[in-house]
Input
Amino acid sequence: MQQLLAKPVVEAVHLEVSDRVSRFKAKHGRAPGLAVVLVGDDPASVIYTTKKGQAAVAVGIHHETVEFSTQSSESEVIAAVRKLNLNPKIDGILVQRPIPKNFDAEASLYWVDPAKDVDCFHPINVGKLAAGLPGLRPCTPMGVMRILKHYGISVAGKTACVVGRSNIVGKPMAALLLEANATVLHCHSQTKDLMKLTRQAEILVVAAGKPGLVTADHVAKGAVVIDVGIHRNAAGKVCGDVDAAALAGIPSAITPVPGGVGPMTIAMLLANTVTAAEMRES
Ligand code: GUN
Output
């Protein structure tokens, strides 16, 4: 059972992005810019935003973090995002989720200028993805596609099954697999007889947010299993949506948790920032 590790893929993406940044700087006299907006002090969000900033700097991307306390008002945050929308040095803007519960989550999808929406959360960009039009693509699902490409796993004509229908992962994941010519089965919490569908998958992507949901009974012999879940179990150990230990010998390849899909999100965010910069300058 091959372990599809993120590390070599992240290294390859970083090299590629650094090269694109150098060419962008030579052509336009400035670095691509990424702004990360953080509201509150959710510990995971603080860690993620710090990592995003460090990764940006490491590949030569100009980086700014704009931080707000938990007490900040929605209008203050919106005003800051509007300023970033107009800032010529900034090409990509990311508002770290979750945002405070008293903020309007639906309205927040429209805050970032679609041209700078490196998360691909704005309905314009979601629509472009659905319509197969060129544009920014969401980071985590792109990271999954990049892992498949790196390890030489073809997608066209294969039966892929996505478990989970979140706007951040499940829905765009199914769209990207379809765009890559897979036959896509899309399962979710209301799916009857989940196993019957997941067992048809040659590529099984699990993004259900449920630790250990996928067991040996869900997986066909020789399938490629991609685990997007990340949880901490009762013993404090990081685990995914797939009970990986129980799958031994069944799949041909699997992404471990940690060290599989997780690190790809930030790598693809860097790639998206350069793509947004190139598109804005073209
Ligand atoms: N919180 C957890 N993952 C993400 C992500 O990909 N983007 C944003 N903006 N917030 C997140």
